[in-house]
Design a protein that fits this description.
With about 180 residues, the chain is α+β, with helices and mostly antiparallel strands. About 20% of the residues lie in helices and about 45% in strands. It folds into 2 domains: about 120 residues, Alpha-Beta Plaits, CATH 3.30.70; about 55 residues, Roll (SH3 type barrels). The chain is built from 3 helices and 14 strands.
């Protein structure tokens, strides 16, 4: 790595890790920063997650999902020492950037990311796609079958085209009121 000094300033960097090991890498980094006395160069280690609502087996669950699987974000001043500490942490494969020079994330990217992480209301996540055949499990159209027309993940709603009196009619339902056939 080319010689760098603290003149480059404090920035956020994306560190590539083995997928599935993001939390372990973050824990390891925090321990290494403390044990090696790097608190003045490496300030924050973050695994970006957001809450999503998943529906499985007709039950709604709120889950924490990683926004960038395989990546950990680190706020640091890049120096030879801080680069070495991060780069030689177990299960870290490298920094995001060209060659041996890490590329900092822009302030705009960090603001967007922090906004996504700070959202109190979880997003709905459902494994339906337009055109899927579904059966309505609740409400006035219980036991009717139809095809998914539109999906509104923000509101947790799905429009199902149901044949009523020989005519296709759109019916708006909650994700919990339908299941895939």
């Amino acid at each position: 790595m080319p010689k760098q000094t603290s003149e480059f300033g404090r920035n956020w960097y994306a560190v590539h890790t083995y997928s599935g090991y993001e939390d372990a890498v973050a824990r390891n980094l925090r321990q290494r920063i403390e044990s090696m006395g790097m608190e003045d160069k490496i300030f924050n280690v973050l695994v970006p997650t957001e809450k999503k609502i998943k529906i499985k087996g007709g039950k709604r669950r709120t889950v924490e999902e990683k926004i960038y699987p395989g990546y950990v974000l680190v706020e640091m001043i890049v120096t030879d020492d801080s680069w070495y500490v991060i780069r030689n942490t177990p299960r870290v494969t490298g920094f995001v950037g060209s060659g041996t020079t890490p590329t900092p994330l822009s302030a705009e990217e960090i603001d967007i990311l922090m906004g996504r992480m700070g959202e109190a209301e979880p997003k709905h996540k459902v494994d339906l796609t337009p055109g899927d055949a579904v059966k309505i499990t609740d409400g006035p159209f219980k036991d009717f079958e139809g095809k998914v027309g539109e999906i509104d993940e923000e509101r947790g709603k799905v429009k199902v085209m149901v044949s009523i009196f020989g005519r296709e009619t759109p019916v708006e339902l909650d994700f919990l009121q339908v299941r895939r056939v």
